[in-house]
Amino acid sequence: MDSWTLLWAMILAFAPISEVRGAIPYLLIATSGDAVGAVYGLLLSVAANMAVPFAAFPILDVLDALAAKPWMPSVVKRLYGFLRGLGERKALGVRRGSYIALMVFVAVPLPATGAWTGSLVAYVLGLDRRKSILAIDAGVAAASLIVFAAAYLGIGLLKTLFML
């Protein structure tokens, strides 16, 4: 496996839209037949996705401070309001102080339930950052296992059905 494949997998894992839900299937397809490369890429992708809260919380702090400034363009304020509203809507299923619920929220491999949204939910609810990071990272690990199993079995099934 080449280093570009690893780089793209890490970018996919860190990106807000795909996260490990996109990186793991990409890795399994890009490294077909290379089990060592797939495991190495999987570990790097999970690590990249686990780094998300360390970037998300400072970004949210800066956005929160900038949104309060009178000179800030209204477009930025509306974008931040939209993001905060998204976090508040997603937070309805996560009670204040419930880190297990936050972990389960991140672990479910559905759209808009990854580490970025989990960080936003924890920020909106004002949860303790250290505990939130642990819960989010545990959720990322669980989501990675779920996505890996589903993608591995799905690719194997497709290969069997279409004799690839």
TrEMBL record:
Source taxon at top rank: Archaea
One family name in Pfam for this protein: Sm_multidrug_ex
Organism expressing this protein natively: Desulfurococcus mucosus (strain ATCC 35584 / DSM 2162 / JCM 9187 / O7/1)
Residue ranges of the TM segments: 38-63, 99-126, 132-158
Annotated InterPro entries: Sm_multidrug_ex
This protein's name: Small multi-drug export protein
Key words of the record: Membrane, Transmembrane, Transmembrane helix
